[in-house]
């Protein structure tokens, strides 16, 4: 395999769990298992469904807008604005919330790819064989 180029307007998966406009651009469906790049637009007041990446860290670069990063595990809400990066450690229940007057545009996602979550929502078949280079041991 060699270098490839993807475009945000040609995603191979959309995920309403994240937002009405969550585009998975680089993910296991494009044969990228240890990197992930999503393009997400949250309309004013829109929020992710609270979720956990058990074995992946989530990094979200805010391109536009402002809102709150909500950590449900530790009962903390942190404000962010364009230019900030939100980092979520593995195992933290979280959501991103757009401000009531602000559309939020971001790129990023869990790394490595969150295979358990993708299996749970049916984006990856339960019996899909993981490549040898996938860096997480899911047997634990």
Write out key terms for the chains shown.
140 residues, globular, three-stranded antiparallel sheet, mainly beta, six-stranded antiparallel sheet, 1 helix
Structure description:
The chain is globular and about 45 Å long. It is mainly beta and 140 residues long. The chain has one helix spanning 115-120; strands at 13-14, 21-26, 37-42, 57-64, 66-71, 76-81, 85-88, 94-98, 104-111.
Quickly describe the structure:
With 140 residues, the protein is mainly beta.
Strand/helix succession: EEEEEEEEEH
Q: Name the poorly predicted regions.
A: none
Give the end-to-end Cα distance, rounded to a whole number of Å.
30 Å
Helix tally equals 1
What is the β-strand count?
9
Question: Structural class of the helices, strands and pairings?
Answer: mainly beta
Major sheet, described briefly? 6 strands, antiparallel
Question: Residue share in helices?
Answer: under 10%
- What fraction strand? 35-45%
Mean pLDDT across all residues, rounded? 95
Strand order of the largest sheet: 1-2-3-9-4-7
Radius of gyration computed on alpha carbons? 15 Å
Shape: globular
